[in-house]
Amino acid sequence: MKSFSAMIKRWDIIVTLVLVLLSFLPAAVFSYQQAEKNGGFVKAQGEEPIYVAVISVNNKEVRRITLTGNTKNEVFDVFSSNDDYNTVEVRGEEIRIKGANCSDQVCVQFGFLSKPGETAVCLPHNFIIEIESIGGSVIEDEPIISS
Amino acid sequence: MTKNQRIVYIALLAAQAVIISILERAIPFPFAFAPGAKLGLANIITCMALYTLTVKDVTKVVLIRITLSALLGGNLSSFMYSASGAILSLLGMILVKQLGPSRISLIGVSVAGAIMHNVGQLLIASWIAQTWTVLLYLPVMSFIGILSGIAIGIIANYLLTHVEKLVYYRYLNE
User: Fold this and answer.
1) Do both A77 and A136 map to the same domain?
2) Cut 0.90: pTM above it
3) A25 CA to chain B: closest CA distance, Å?
4) Top-level CATH class of B3-29+36-173?
5) Chain A (29-48) residues lying within 8 Å, Cβ to Cβ, of chain B
């Protein structure tokens, strides 16, 4: 342990701190955008934003599920090709990838998603679940927002 | 170091790095909160190479490692990840090392490498998935990167000061 503290130099700490701060940059930009996007809606309609899970395969949207206020439980498979599937589970206001037959199983480790900006990605199948937040109004009336 | 010695040394380092990255695939990752995170043990070899070889030869070691480990049990998408991660992390480590040994130690170099590796992989992931919300995982990944980077810096420093040949090569390189 003595050699460890002797090894560390001042620039080690500076470089590490700068890189850690930079890694928060995307999160900061995202929450700024989110605040700007929702601000107008909430003021105009006085309602809470609604969270929607968007499921896309090969960059095409295949299904949207409104999570806010959802009480149903649902399990279904999404096929990205004839043999490749991801099993999606919706439990109340949360959604997760329950299982998949992909090679790395990383997508299953993401666990339940419920907040806007959270993402579960299965890269071998090019399968994504994203949570979007939409200013308070009924989903059917909203134009589909392609980001 | 004669030319042949150098070639054999590059080949040895690349071979070790390939074996380490294949072994690493067999280790299940213990932290459930960071999907896809890895220890990055192969970075030990890159750190050792950085301090004992020229920049050109280090690049050779890294390129050989990426290509071989993709051929031995990877697929195209995993090759793209490891390639972008490895190239960005190599660039970061070379840049940080320019500060000189009096200012920065192996720990800083390998932490920079680990974090840049995550940046590279997440950039490719967000490009393939066409959504940049993937980048929101960066803080979690860089936290793991700091821990594993420190450990790997210590290991590489231990090897560089205790293995006789490495000490000699490092002396030649400086």
Assistant:
1) yes
2) no
3) 9
4) mainly alpha
5) 30
